[in-house]
Amino acid sequence: MADVRSAVAWYIEVFGFVEHVRIGDRHRSQLGLPDGPPAELVVAEVRPGRRTPENERSHQVMLKVADVARVVETAVARGARLVDPPHDWEYGERQAAIDDPFGHQWVLNQTLTDVAPEQWGGNTVTPRAPSP
């Protein structure tokens, strides 16, 4: 990534990440979500021998958020490009996709309701344990 510090600031402002560790001014930062399960996002500079971005995308990052419409509005106001506007799906999720100013595509996901996979054409393989 060409500008680690700018990307980190953007991810903090738009997605609500917190910065846990900074390694050098431009080399790498470790981010996490303040109130979520233990998770980590590492933002790092492009270095020799690492995969560099190309015209074709190799992946999307999916991020669960509390309010897709609000995050999309914030992201677009700060330079993201809306790829796919918020849409509600039959499986109980609201999703939208954006390209951030640093070349990454994010699929934002909000759970609206818990819908059994059999209700929309899926199959339950191993049921999830109920939430405490």
Major sheet size, sense and barrel closure: 4 strands, mixed
Pairing-aware structural class of the strands and helices? alpha+beta
Number of strands: 7
Distance between the termini: 39 Å
Q: What is the CATH C level class of the largest domain, in words?
A: Alpha Beta
Biggest sheet: strand arrangement: 4-7-6-5
Low-confidence stretches: none
C-alpha-based Rg, rounded: 17 Å
Secondary structure: helix percent: 10-25%
CATH superfamily of the largest domain: 2,3-Dihydroxybiphenyl 1,2-Dioxygenase, domain 1
CATH architecture of the largest domain: Roll
Q: Counting H and I runs of at least 4 residues, what is the number of helices? A: 2
Number of domain units: 2
Q: What oligomeric state do these chains adopt? A: single chain
Descriptive account of the structure:
This protein has helices at residues 4-15, 68-77, and strands spanning 18-23, 28-32, 41-44, 61-64, 81-88, 93-99, 105-111. The protein is an alpha+beta fold and 132 residues long. It folds into two domains: 1-47, Signal recognition particle alu RNA binding heterodimer, srp9/1; 57-120, 2,3-Dihydroxybiphenyl 1,2-Dioxygenase, domain 1, CATH 3.10.180.10. The strands form two sheets. The protein has a four-stranded mixed β-sheet with strand order 4-7-6-5, with helices on one face. Strands 1-2-3 form a three-stranded antiparallel β-sheet, with helices on one face. The chain is globular. 15% of the residues are buried.
